[in-house]
Amino acid sequence: MIDPATSRVLITGAAGAIGSALREGLRGRYHHLRLTDINPVTDLANNEEFTQADVSDRKALETLMQGVDALVHMTGAPAEHDLETLFRVNNRGLYDVLETARLAGVQRIVYASSNHAFGCYPIDVPVSPAMPARPDSMYGVFKVLGEAMLQYYYDRHAIGSVSLRIGTYRPLPIDQRSLATWLSPRDIVQLVDLSLRHSDPGALVVNGYSGNTRIKTQDPNWATLDYVPLDNAEEHIPMLRAMGVDIDGPWEYREHGGSFAVQPEKPPGV
Ligand SMILES: NC(=O)c1ccc[n+]([C@@H]2O[C@H](COP(=O)([O-])OP(=O)(O)OC[C@H]3O[C@@H](n4cnc5c(N)ncnc54)[C@H](O)[C@@H]3O)[C@@H](O)[C@H]2O)c1
Q: What pTM value is reported for the model?
């Protein structure tokens, strides 16, 4: 059981957008935060320690994992990267992260998966995590592989995890699609906190959205986590209207994955 007062939590990808929101939201509650990223983090609080490292650096990972009880793995190469980088960072790197975590006795893992794990489902199908994955891109395929790796680490090594299929993480919704997929800063903090403190999640997969009125998914496993979203993209309609976003017209994308489901893939090495 992860205890915010005594457990040490390692956040990877700590310099990123979500990592920064998690630091801000968790450091008041979690007494021992360890952070890592390939990019620097300089504004450390008293209960944060930071090591700059590439996720491919196995030795650095071994050191980072010492004394860690729970891992929040937010490192990720975004979809626009070439195939090799996506695989190296998002899966080969994940393997080293999970192996070093296992060997160090880490008990809980929260993993940044993505809505692109099911992005090829037609938008009128209310997808749930119980349905088979239908990734919309190699980025999505690799996220599904990550979820499968976490299932394996639960079945073979009894490490409980929550894979968060994050929608559109932003301070505010940005377009028509994010009226369905937005995940706010305080809701990602809530999801990670609940995932860490759950007594036995198994290898749970959860949709990571705020409580958006226009949500297109169903049964996202929120009740298992006792997650009650604080935010709803609908509250930001006036802002979106002022930005010229088409709020009332037909839904722009035919699939859950939005543009990812129609964009050509980058060939390897480009
Ligand atoms: N932001 C979203 O809407 C969204 C949606 C779905 C999934 N996700 C996933 O959530 C995670 C965090 O997303 P984010 O928006 O904070 O992205 P981000 O790009 O802001 O943060 C990712 C972090 O990973 C670090 N990183 C990249 N390559 C690395 C390497 N080789 N070694 C060590 N660190 C490395 C980057 O420096 C960065 O700080 C990612 O895995 C992403 O795929 C995000």
A: 0.98
